[in-house]
Structures are given as C-alpha cells and as structure tokens.
Amino acid sequence: MGPSFKEISKRYGQSERAVETVAKLIIKPKPENWPGMAYMPPYDIPYDEAKALARYVLIESIKNLSSQNKTEDSIEDILDDDAQFH
Ligand code: HEM
Questions:
Q1: Which residue CA neighbors atom 8 of ligand 1 most closely?
Q2: How far is the CA of 66 from the centre of ligand 1 (A)?
Q3: Atom of ligand 1 lying closest to residue 1 CA
Q4: Number of domains into which the chain is organized
Q5: How many CA atoms lie within 13 A of 73 on its CB side?
Q6: Which pLDDT score, from 0 to 100, does residue 62 have?
C-alpha cells in the first residue's frame, strides 16, 4: 500500500529534522506527497511515539537492509527493495 521505508528514508533523510517531519506525517499523513498511492490511515498517537516510529522508518529499517545484504543469497538479491511497500 505505502512506499518502502527505504524510499521514504531517501526522500526525507536521517536528520533529527527529518524524524520530526516524518513523525508529524505518521500522525497526519499527506497522501498528496505520494501521488497515485492509496491513502495511509492517520495514527492518533503521542508525538514521542510517532518520533520513535519515524526513527525506525528512516534509520533502523535501513540498517537492517544493509546487514541483510551481507548474507549470501539474501532476499535483497531477489527483490528490488526500492519496489517494496509497507
Ligand atoms: C506504524 C504503521 C505505519 C507507519 C510508521 C507508516 C509510515 C509511513 C510514512 C512515514 C509515510 C510517508 C508519508 C509522507 O511522505 O507523506 C507513509 C506513507 C504511506 N503509507 Fe504508511 N505507515 C504505517 C502504516 C500504514 C498502513 C496500515 C497503511 C495502509 C493500510 C499505510 C499506507 C501508506 C500509504 C498508501 C502511503 C503513501 C500515501 C500517503 O501518505 O497517504 N501505512 N507511511
């Protein structure tokens, strides 16, 4: 349904400012940022929790991708992670 975390991370970066921007988008998504995709449901959660999720989307999920790439025959060899969805 939604863009891959890698794509989101590429678009916004990994700065503290990016974490704050994306946290606000998790609480109140802006579907116009991703034309052609479905609408993400808004999450009525505290800002601190949204920031923790944003940190995962922008930073932690990317770390997981690079460590997977080190293993032989990883799923990343088969799947194009830019084409993945969340
Ligand atoms: C903890 C759960 C989730 C997190 C952390 C999350 C995170 C994000 C983020 C950061 C974006 C980019 C927002 C932007 O650039 O404006 C996004 C977009 C999107 N997400 Fe999610 N998402 C979650 C759950 C979901 C669910 C449950 C769905 C659908 C059932 C969904 C569908 C989408 C779609 C369609 C987009 C692109 C269009 C839009 O922003 O409305 N997401 N999501």
A1: 26
A2: 22
A3: 35
A4: 1
A5: 0
A6: 84
Does the Cβ of 41 fall within 6 Å of ligand 1? yes
Q: How far is the CA of 40 from the centre of ligand 1 (A)?
A: 5
- Centroid of chain to Cα 52: 12
Residue 10 within any structural domain of the chain: yes
> 49 in a domain, yes or no?
yes
Rounded mean pLDDT for each run of 10 residues along the chain, 86 residues in total: 92 97 98 95 98 96 67 58 76
How far apart are alpha carbons 14 and 36 in whole angstroms?
A: 25
Q: Is the residue at 21 inside a domain?
A: yes
On whether residue 30 sits in a domain, the answer given is yes
> Which structural domain, as residue segments, surrounds residue 32?
5-63
